[in-house]
Design brief:
Blueprint (H helix, E strand, L loop, with lengths): L2 H19 L3 H18 L4 H28 L14 E6 L7 E5 L2 E6 L9 E7 L3 E6 H4 L1
Parallel strand pairs: 3-5
Antiparallel strand pairs: 1-2, 1-4, 2-3, 4-5
Helix pairs in contact: 1-2, 2-3
Organism: Paenibacillus borealis
Membrane topology: Multi-pass membrane protein
Protein name: NfeD-like C-terminal domain-containing protein
């Protein structure tokens, strides 16, 4: 198999995984792999140049889009949908043990969740804090 096809497959896999993470980091890696694939198409024997070109593109995109994303978050009228989840009621779909993750359904979304107390399946909870992708919950009756 030719090298540019491998780069194209890597770019596609990274892009698909990115769609599940919503972080943009894998998107930039995907674009870097795509650039490396283009270099491989033009210069199939220059493996080091392919890696360097792909890495530089991914690094430049990562560095320069971070300030843009911060500016967007601080702009007037921007609303992060993830912060709305704090204070909402949810339902445990996979039991939570202290120190271990479980699953909680809030609205139509299922989140990985932690708690300081053990929570069984189908127990109602309230979201008290949200990390990047993990929420912290408490038993519904404990707070209200």
């Amino acid at each position: 198999m030719v090298v540019w096809v491998l780069w194209l497959i890597a770019a596609g896999v990274l892009f698909v995984v990115e769609m599940f993470t919503f972080t943009f980091y894998l998107l930039w890696l995907s674009l870097g792999a795509l650039v490396a694939g283009l270099v491989a198409l033009l210069l199939p024997d220059a493996l080091l140049l392919q890696v360097v070109a792909g890495s530089l593109v991914a690094l430049i995109l990562t560095v320069f889009t971070k300030p843009l994303a911060a500016r967007l978050r601080n702009s007037r009228g921007f609303k992060d949908t993830g912060t709305d989840i704090v204070g909402r009621k949810g339902l445990v779909v996979e039991a939570i043990e202290p120190g271990r993750y479980g699953q909680v359904k809030v609205g139509g979304d299922t989140w990985s969740a932690t708690s300081t107390v053990a929570l069984g399946k189908d127990q109602e909870v309230i979201v008290v804090r949200r990390g990047t992708t993990i929420i912290e919950v408490e038993r519904w009756g404990d707070m209200y």
